[in-house]
Amino acid sequence: MNIHENVKLPLRISNLFKMAISKNKLAHAYLLNWRNQTAPEEIPLYLAKIILCNNLDIHENEVLPCNKCESCKKFNANAHPDLIIIRPDGNFIKINQIRDIITKFAFQPYYDKRVCIIFDCHRFNQEAANTILKTLEEPNEDNFFFLCTNSMDILLPTIISRCQPINMPVFSDILEEDLKMVSVSPEILPFLKHIGVTGKNELLTLKENEFFFIREEIIDLIIKKHEYSFLKILNLSDRISKSTFLTIIVLKMLSSINRDLLMICNGIKNVLNYELKTFLEVQGEIISQEKIFEHNKWINNAFYLIDRNVNKSLIIEKSLAFYANTL
Ligand SMILES: [Zn+2]
């Protein structure tokens, strides 16, 4: 286990990189803009890990690093020879730091590709900015840049124009009005954040796929399992599995319920699925953590099974049956 293993990219970003990688159309320099919010460092690091991985798992909506290849192992050990990270030295990013990059770029990468992440890239001093411009102008096909900023307004336009800008979703993008639009309570926010939903468009996609109804039904099934016949579970599984998107989101929801149960078993009470809080608090006292771990392992594996075209309805049915039979 390491800090990069469980990063959940916002849906829009994981889709964007999935498309770029599968079409072999990665840009050489991305400008990640966090619009006045603190940039979470794990996101550019995780994107770098994806680019450097030699054996990517490409799924319906995302790409995942394999965590097994030499590159991933080096990355997880914080010892990747082809990852360069630049942060301001004091108040500014200085010319000698950029010269270091250029010196490294003069050699072939140790593996296949090289990634340079520049945090707070609005802090280039004049000399450093001029020098990095030349490097951005003459991209080498093995080198990739992630320039990160939360103050794009003070960044030189010449730098912006040489990068592909990406507005990173910030969580405040979801307002209470957006939630009213999809008729859900603001208490659902921690759950949405956990599954990587950050913007209005993503909320609308969930609504179009009837996720919020399905979620209520699953919660109802868990709480009132005695009223649910096997046929009802079958019917629910069939409706979910008609869409791969919905299947994946439901699996993420089930994984978040398992996470809640484990938290409660360990005395931590801030759950992601607030409607289940009281129920899970009672169950957390009696259920074995081992069984939850086992079920979560099954769910993690289910993501791979979906990608290998195993019957989605069977997967959901088995995943839901755990709550009907065990809780
Ligand atoms: Zn890998």
What's this, in brief?
The mean pLDDT is 88.
Instruction: Write down the Rg.
Output: 22 Å
Strand order of the largest sheet: 4-5-6-1-7
Question: Spans of 5+ residues with little confidence (pLDDT < 50)?
Answer: none
Largest sheet: 5 strands, parallel
Q: Percent of residues in helical segments?
A: 40-55%
Assembly category: single chain
Summarize this structure as a short list of keywords or feature phrases:
327 residues, alpha/beta, five-stranded parallel beta sheet, 15 helices, elongated, binds zinc ion
Explained architecture:
- By secondary structure, the chain is α/β, with parallel strands linked by helices.
- The protein has 15 helices and seven strands.
- Helix 4 links the parallel strand 4 (83-86) and strand 5.
- Helix 4 runs parallel beside helix 5, helix 11 runs antiparallel to helix 15 (312-325) and helix 12 packs across helix 13 (277-286).
- The site of zinc ion (ZN) has 9 residues, from helix 3.
